[in-house]
Amino acid sequence: MLIAEDDPRQAEGVRRYLVAEGYEALVVPDGRAAIDTVRRERPDLLILDVMMPKVDGLDVCRVLRAEYDLPILVLTARSSEEDLLLGLDLGADDYLTKPYSPRELMARVRTLLRRTSRAVTVDHRVHAVAGFVVDPVRREVRRGDTVVVCTRGEFEVLATLAAEPGRVFTRRQLLQRTRGWESYPTDRTIDMHVLNLRRKLESDPARPRHLITVYGVGYKLSP
């Protein structure tokens, strides 16, 4: 695992927690080093501070999410809902505000690793729905020959809907299928992913034909 944290004391504390749980952990002090180390070492998980020198954590998240399907846990002193949603929109998988307990941090790490492991084996079928293709193996969404770039959260929501076209999923169900309800007790997480998917996939995002809102319930993918 990789820890990107510019506070040496906090970085060493996180590293010790991970080592005590049996994980191997590297530490880097800035965002530029985080990007370079991920590209070189390909860690299983990135624990990423937001406020860092050279490149801040949100930019690190944006750059790496475009290149790798890497679980990212963001640590930050920012606690507003807007900051949380921005981190998720850029591709973070979990968001933990400081101060946090070691037990909570380790629980989040274990949950992310379990989700990553399950994602490899749950459903490898390619889904062709509504003029686009969702490929879980390549983690790609394609429209014709064009790859539509999606964040991890957007892809997971779309893949869930595409696996059962026409079925209505509640926001709670989509949270449970993707990130886990216990980590994100807000419906706005899913709403934002659907809004972004409409911008990328619908010919008229204001009048969606495929990513349909079922008012008072949730969403469905209509072929």
UniProtKB/TrEMBL annotation:
Q: What Gene3D superfamilies does this protein map onto?
A: 3.40.50.2300, 6.10.250.690, Winged helix-like DNA-binding domain superfamily/Winged helix DNA-binding domain
The protein's UniProt keywords, in alphabetical order, are: DNA-binding, Phosphoprotein, Transcription, Transcription regulation
A GO molecular function term, named singly, is: phosphorelay response regulator activity
Q: Which one Pfam family would you cite for this protein? A: Trans_reg_C
InterPro entries, per the entry: CheY-like_superfamily, OmpR/PhoB-type_DNA-bd, Sig_transdc_resp-reg_C-effctor, Sig_transdc_resp-reg_receiver, WalR-like, WH-like_DNA-bd_sf
Q: Which SUPFAM superfamilies match?
A: C-terminal effector domain of the bipartite response regulators, CheY-like
Domain OmpR/PhoB-type: where? 124-223
**Modification 4-aspartylphosphate occurs at:** 49
Q: Name one GO biological process term.
A: regulation of DNA-templated transcription
Domain of life of the source: Bacteria
**What residue stretches are annotated with the Response regulatory domain?**
1-113
One GO cellular component from the entry?
Answer: cytosol
Name the DNA-binding segment ranges: 124-223
Which PANTHER family has this protein been placed in?
DNA-BINDING DUAL TRANSCRIPTIONAL REGULATOR OMPR, REGULATOR OF RPOS
Q: What is this protein called?
A: Two component transcriptional regulator
